[in-house]
Amino acid sequence: MSREEQIMADTITVLGNVASDPDRGATATGIPTLSFRMATNHRRPDGAGGWIDAGTNWFEIRAYRALAENAEASLSKGDAVVVVGRLKLREWDAKDGKRMNAEIEAESIGPDLRRGRSVYHRVSHQASPRAEGAAGDSGGASVGVAASAGAGAGAGVAVGVTAGVGAPDAAADAWATPGSDATPF
Fold it and tell me: What is the reported pLDDT for 178?
């Protein structure tokens, strides 16, 4: 493996906020894609009990296939997220010199539970929702996540599920009731 290939294979974990509305697309062969900008803000204590903002890093996040479809149904601008993926640094020439873009090809995306709450709903992968959609059936389950503003302990995340073919039955799903004592395993 060449040095350039090693750099292209770096896996990182980034915590931050969705900074743009997620943009759905597809490859030339029809594979679902999703992209959005992500901002990570770095803060440090100022020594007097406050905080100093130490800068912001920007990343272009790209997701494919089922991750793209689930992220589209779950993410909105402003949501606190954790992204794990492969880092790609791309350099180009601009009028005023060289520029660099940091892109992450996501392997996993989830809510940052330090800043809110979430309820996980498994989506059945028995049949492709895209294939069922072509036959006139919406298929699958739509999962929506909305985070409330603020980073304190009171900040929350509301999750909604719209049932469809393959969607979990909330009455039979012990995970569907937050705070329930029953553990489904």
Answer: 52
Backbone angles phi, psi at 91, to 5 degrees: -110, 140
- CA separation for the pair 35, 24 (Å, rounded): 7
If one counts every other C-beta atom within 10 angstroms of the C-beta of residue 87, the result is 16
**Digit-coded pLDDT (tens) for 40-93:** 998 888 999 998 988 999 999 999 999 999 999 999 999 999 999 999 999 989
Nearest to 17 by CA among 101, 105, 83, 78: 78
The model's pTM is: 0.62
Of 95, 86, 74, which is closest to residue 24 (Cα–Cα)?
74
Residue type, 60: E
Contact of 90 with 82, CB cutoff 8 Å: no
Determine the 3-state secondary structure of 14 from DSSP: strand
Q: Residue 184: name the closest of 120, 126, 124 by CA.
A: 120
> What whole-number distance in Å separates Cα of residue 46 and Cα of residue 83?
28
Nearest Cα to 141, choosing from 119, 161, 111?
161
Task: State the DSSP H helix or E strand holding residue 3, giving kind and residue range, or none if neither.
Answer: helix 3-8
